[in-house]
Amino acid sequence: MNMHRGVGLAAFDKEQLSKRFAELSSELSKTQVDNLQSQLTQFRTALSHFAATHRDSIRSDPAFRHAFQQMCSSIGVDPLAGPRKGGWWAEMLGMGDWQHELGVQIVDVCVSTRERNGGVIEMGELVRMVSKLRGVESGVITEEDVIRSIKTLQPLGAGYEVLDVGGGKKMVRSVVKELDADQAVILAEAQVEGGWIVEAILENRRGWTGERARAALENMLLRDGLCWLDSQDEHYGQAYWIPSAMRWDE
Amino acid sequence: MALSTHTTPSGFLLPSIHSAPPFFTEQPNQSTHAHLTEKWMRLILAYARHKRLFVLRVEDAEVPGGEWDEILRNERINRRILPPYLSSLMAIMVAKNLAVYEPSKQTRAVLLYWRLPEEWADVLHSWATATGQLNTILTFYEISDPPIQSPLSGIPIPLLRRAITILSRSNRAQIIGVADGEGVRFFVG
User: Fold this and answer.
1) What's the CATH number of domain B117-186, 1.20.1070.10, 2.60.40.420, 1.10.10.10, 3.30.1360.120?
2) Fewest CB within a 10 Å sphere: which of A114, A129, B85, B146?
3) Are B22 and A229 inside 8 Å of each other by CB?
4) What is the distance of C-alpha A27 from the center of its chain?
């Protein structure tokens, strides 16, 4: 069995089990196969029981939820996988609703901030705003929860995607237009300066030519609506500000 | 380095976007322009309501020290809205019926409708009724500058006249010529 790729717990269905063991039996003795089968059944029962007992904790405590996830993936079980819709989460924990609700709220925040940031939002801000929507304190909904939820949004084809822009920062893109590589670099540099960016930074820190920097910034400004212009910048006259890289206290 | 709200000396709460330097630049991207302009218009009307300011002039962006400094300038980030942008905002507000050029046939000053003339008409009539001044003749001056602060205090005469005209259409007021100006008589509504 491939231990690197997560296998849905549903794969341990009885029919599947029989089939799998039929394949294995030629290699292992019958005793070994019987042992394995009974242990796996026991394991499945135990895991289901555990999940049912701790359902509330898994829902409400992010540290516990994280540990549970870690445990699942370390034994090669991906709660999102499986033939049933929503995967094992939905089946065992009734987490399908929770997951779905979170997905809806993520879309809500992305759509409502799109005018301001052009469809790209910083992960921290997204987590903060979703937490606010749910009326929970920070820490209850984690970045991990949001990333997992965004994975389930992908079939929507609406372009929801998590982008790693370096420096430990992630952005969530919610518009169909993809960020090109230059834009990703600009986002990363803007993060460092709290949203502010000028051609000089790209030339000095990234070795870009003036034309390349100017073209990339002008496209973000005029064509894509991903940044704003400041024509009163003290040193450079014109500077660009990227709202998704700016930190807002609402 | 978070952008936060800020309360002005006059007690007005500025939104966090007012702390963003680019907010003070007229944006070239159309949808960004629409988005930020919408915020400016709301801000201007809210501030006008807060300080009971009725008139906004391009001059307020040209010369410091006026009544609008708390909004049109942000000393903390060394930014101010430039006259061309303010002029553009005024034009958009007029187009959306949130303001009128007053006097007409010029574009340097607007009368702001943080309350529509129709709403002013109701406020005016309620005030006349509540203060027992129905059927008496009042001068415009007595209404806009009463001895005791009233909901109509400071209302510019052109706006007062508009409100009275609205009332006259439903027979709740009648404009009367008086010795040194204009007067009005209110009737039961």
Assistant:
1) 1.10.10.10
2) B146
3) yes
4) 40
Q: Tell which of B17, B25, B37 to mutate to test the A interface (max A CBs under 10 Å).
A: B25
Within a domain: A185: yes
Interface check for A137 against chain B (CB to CB < 8 A): the answer is no
Chains A & B: contacts with CB separation below 8 Å: 54
pLDDT in tens, A178-221: 778 888 899 989 988 889 999 999 999 999 999 999 999 999 99
Q: Is B56 helix (H, G, I), strand (E, B) or coil?
A: strand
Look up residue A199 and give its two tokens: 């051609």
Q: What is the pLDDT of residue B50?
A: 95
CATH second-level architecture of B6-112?
Answer: Orthogonal Bundle (1.10)
Sign of dihedral through CA atoms B166, B169, B171, B175?
A: positive
Residue A249 touches chain B, beta carbons under 8 Å:
yes
Clarify whether residues A56 and A104 are in a common domain.
no
Dist CA B46 CA B39 (whole Å):
11
| Per-residue pLDDT tens over the stretch A110-146 | 888 887 888 889 999 999 999 988 887 777 888 988 9
Partners of residue A246 in chain B, C-beta under 8 Å = 3, 20
Report the CATH number at residue A132. 1.10.10.10
Residues with Cβ within 8 Å of A29's Cβ and at least 6 positions away in sequence, in order, are none
- What's the rounded Cα separation, in Å, for the pair B9 and B47? 13
The interface predicted TM-score of the complex, written ipTM, equals: 0.87
Question: Which region among A33-37, B20-24, B129-133 has the lowest average model confidence (pLDDT)?
Answer: A33-37
| Closest by Cβ to B3, choosing from A234, A239, A246 | A246
Strand segments, DSSP code E, in A33-126 are 120-122
Query: DSSP letter at B92?
Result: H
User: Is residue A11 in some structural domain?
Assistant: yes
- The answer as to whether A54 is a domain residue is yes
Picking from B3, B5, B28, the nearest residue to A221 by CB comes out as B28
pLDDT value for A1 = 45
